[in-house]
Each structure stands twice: as structure tokens, then as C-alpha cells.
Amino acid sequence: MPDSKYDVIIIGAGLGGLECAYMLQKVGKKVLVLEADALIGGCLQTFRRGGHTFDTGFHYVGGLDEGQMLWRIFNYLNLTNLPWQKMDEDCFDEVSLPSGAFPFAQGYDRFRETLTSRFPAQAENLKKYVALLKEVGDNIANSFNPRSADDVYSQSLFARSAHEFLTQTISDPVLQDVLSGTSLKMELNAAKLPLYVFAQINSSFIQSAYRIRGGGMQIAESLRLSIEQMGGKVMRSKRVTAFEGADGKATAVIVNDGAERYEADTFISDVHPAATVRLLQTAGLVRKVYQRRIENLENTFGMLTVNVALKPGVVPYQNKNIFVYTQNDVWGLHSNIANGVKAIMISFMPPTDGSNFASGLDILTPMSWDDVSKWFGTKIGSRGDDYVEFKERVAEQCLALAAQHVDNLAEAHQAHWVSTPLTYADYTATEHGSAYGIRKDYNATMFTVLTPKTPVQNVFLTGQNLNLHGILGTSMTSMFTCAEIIGMPKVVSELNS
After folding, report:
1. CA distance linking residue 468 with residue 198, whole number of Å
2. Cβ distance 370 to 426 under 8 Å?
3. Who contacts 338 (Cβ-Cβ below 8 Å, separation ≥6)?
4. pTM for this one?
């Protein structure tokens, strides 16, 4: 006999899984969320070190002004009343290149005018570039058109090269680097990155940019509380280790190697598709050829993150992110750090004490799985002295580079902690510690841009690995997943309610 029977079981309590749970519970489904970790939230998790709170992977969001797409979704999810802080409207992101520092302003017109003042000869080209971003931003709402299950517009941009569009539209190489320079929030792969991913992410942050005071875990906890208040369940330390199936459908999940068993009519997986397929294979529900196809998909690079605790009252808070590059051609820097750190993102934690000083900041640099793969299989805290030496060497390079752009950083440095793609893989179950999920390829959209559907008719996917990553991309994907279960008209009706 099963322990319990549910309408929907969701595997993984990351952002996508919790958003699906919220909507499905709200429309009357009986929902259970099973999270393998002791904490929910995935990359939204926060942690404390030395009396300081740090985010695992959350830094800022785009498109949260009233009426914009993320606002629409977050308003429905009861998340707009969290302590959001709008970033500097004249410079929410700063790109620092050898040729100078360049501000990104919020709002399409202000963004264009600000950069036109620095690149007057590119005025017409900037108009074309911003027009494309605005078109993508305006078209996002059409994704939720119940009369159009097939979004031809976005699909066509998925099949175009972001790098080709940029170099054909903008003729100044420095401006090309500037426009790409905030893109440590995606993988700049000239041979593969689809135009839609590049344009949608940049467009949303230019629309509006926000941080949250107190950490991204508030998003996950708010969703959990709402789900449970509506009658759903979110259970921690419940690792799904197998599926059961019959007649080509999933019927139940086995938790913690047989300790518990739960039945449902429908299942959603918020874990990596490769991990999902391995679970489905335990019940013989997918063919080996499909499993190999999914497992062979490439993952984007990961991040080394330096979480820095600062002495109080020394480093002024900066309401922007700083992206630093030590050389030009930013599209050529996203590989590994064998030759030294050449690109970092500096993100300040908003003060929660009412002061104008930062208590901590994060420094991120791209890191490939190859950089850390030799320590794969080791456990946190027991990876060996060579691993500690390796990550501290990279961290010191990050700190030295950041100190050139953050006043008093060296004097204010109190302590720091370092995580690598191995850390993310262990704590968030992310394949290869990938920062942005599966690598999308505009040459092969049919294979790399996934839909929520799987070969098993009552098992669906959600999360950043499908079509779009980031907070907005994951949130949109969760709505698409729900649409497979309750229909797009119902999803639209809920978002408009």
C-alpha cells in the first residue's frame, strides 16, 4: 500500500518546482513536493558564515517593475511584497574594460541614450540593437497566448546566432564588448548561443533591475509557506531514488532507497533532465537511446564564487554590479582559468541595517568542470590540500582584481569563503555545477531546447535546463509546465486573476 496518493508529485524544491506547486495547488490539485536536501530553494538558498548571510546563486532579477513579465508572475505568486530594492536607474550594471568603464541604465531609451553619448558614431546601430531587445521584451507576453501553442517568433530567434546578430548590427568592437559585458549571467558561446537567450535576458534587466534585502531564500520560503497554507506539502530530506510504472506511465516514486513510497497521477521533475531520465530508467519507462541523448547534452560552465565578509562601516554600498575584464573580446574569455582570472562579476549585498555601507559582497568568475573534475567524487571538507590551494589561488586573483574597483576592499576584508562548480553540484544537485543548465545551441534547437514533455505521458520537466535560465526564464518555464497539465487558457486566467 502507498504511504499517500497525490494528484501531482514534484521532485525538487528549486524555484521552478515551488512555482509549479503553488499554481497547481491553487487551482485545486493535491500537491506534494519532495526535496532531497535539508534546505529548499536550490540556487535560492542562503547560508551564514561568520555571522554574515550570503546567497548561493541569486544576485538580482530583471523585469520586476509593475506590469512587466516577472512582476506579473511574482504578483500572482504573492512575491512582490518581499523587500525588493530597485538598483541604480542610471547605472545598475557597469562594464569595466581596458578601454574604460561603461554604465547600463534602466529603461530602453535611457539605456540607448547613455551608450550613444559614449559611442555617437554607433547611434543608428544602437537603435537597431535596442529595437530588437524591446521587440523580444514586448513579445514575452505572447508566450502565454492560449490561441498560440507554437510561438514561431521566439523559435525563430532560438535558431539565430547571438554573436552573428551582434557583430552584424554593431560595427565598433569595443561597443560589442560593452553590450556583451554584463553577460556573466549567461554563457557567451559564439558558436552556439541562441539570439533569443541573449536578447531576452539582456532585455529583462534593461527593463528594470532589482536586488532583495536579506537573501533570495525569502522567495523559496514565501512559496513554501503559501503552498502549505493552501493545503500542499513540501517535504525536505526526501531523495527520490526510483520510479515505479505500469502501462507506460509512472505510478509512484520511491524515496530514500525504499524507506517511503508515494503515488500520484502526474509527476514533475525540477532536477536536471539527465538525472530525471536515470530515475525513469529504474522503472524501464524510457528507452536507452533517449537516455543517451539526454545524458550527452552539454552543460554550461559553472562559477567559482568568493563570498567576502567586510568590516562594518568601511566599504560604501554600491547599488550596481561591476563586471570587470582584463582584456578585450569578452566572448573569448568564458572557458577556464588556467591562464589566470580575466573576468569577474562583483555583486554587493544590500544593507539590512539602514546604513550606506556593505557588510559583504560576492565575486564570481567563470569556471569549467574540467578545472575541478579531478576532485569529482570527493566530499565537501575532504577534497584534499591541493583542492584548497587551487581554489584559494583563484580566489586571491579575484580579490586582487576586485580591489581595483571597490574602494577600501583590502582594508575592509574580514574573511572569505570559496565555492566551485563541485560545491554547487554537491549542494544543489546541478550536473557539473553548471551555472545556466544545458547549453543551448542555435544550430540544434530541436535537441538542446527542451520542452516540459518527456516520453512518459504523465511525467513533465521544469527548471532552467529547458529553454531559458535565470529567475525570469525559470518562472516562465514553470508556467509552461503547468500549462501541459491544466492547459494554457487556465494558466493565463490565473496570471490575470
Report:
1. 10
2. no
3. 371
4. 0.94
Cα separation of 64 and 210, whole Å?
A: 7
The alpha carbon of residue 368 and the mean position of all alpha carbons in its chain are separated, in whole angstroms, by 17
The Cα 81–Cα 437 span in angstroms is 29
Place of cell 530567434: 157
Distance CA 190, CA 329 (A): 11
Question: Sign of torsion, CA 325 330 332 333?
Answer: positive
Distances in Å between the Cα of 483 and the Cα atoms of 23, 193, 445, 453, 462 are 10, 27, 21, 11, 11
Q: Which helix (H) or strand (E) holds 367?
A: strand 360-367
DSSP codes of every residue in 63-105: S-STTSHHHHHHHHTT-TTS-EEEPPSS-SEEEEETTEEEEE-
Question: Could you report the per-residue pLDDT of 252-308, keeping only the tens digit for each?
Answer: 999 998 889 999 999 999 999 999 999 999 999 999 999 999 999 999 989 999 999
Report the C-alpha gap between 362 and 418 in whole angstroms.
Answer: 10
19-22 — which CB contacts under 8 Å span 24+ positions?
19/73, 19/77, 19/223, 19/462, 19/474, 19/475, 19/478, 19/479, 20/268, 20/270, 20/462, 20/478, 20/481, 20/482, 21/223, 21/227, 21/232, 21/234, 22/77, 22/223, 22/226, 22/227, 22/230
320, 326 Cβ separation under 8 angstroms: no
Residue range 91-102: mean pLDDT, rounded: 96
Residue of 102, 112, 210, 196 whose CA lies nearest to 151: 196
**Whose CA is closest to 482, among 23, 14, 7?**
23
Confirm if 306 and 367 have CB atoms less than 8 A apart. Answer: no
Rounded CA separation 227/480 (Å): 19
Give Cβ neighbours of residue 303 (< 8 Å, ≥ 6 apart).
Answer: 57, 364, 365, 366, 367, 421, 424, 433, 435
Extract the C-alpha cell encoding 177.
564588448
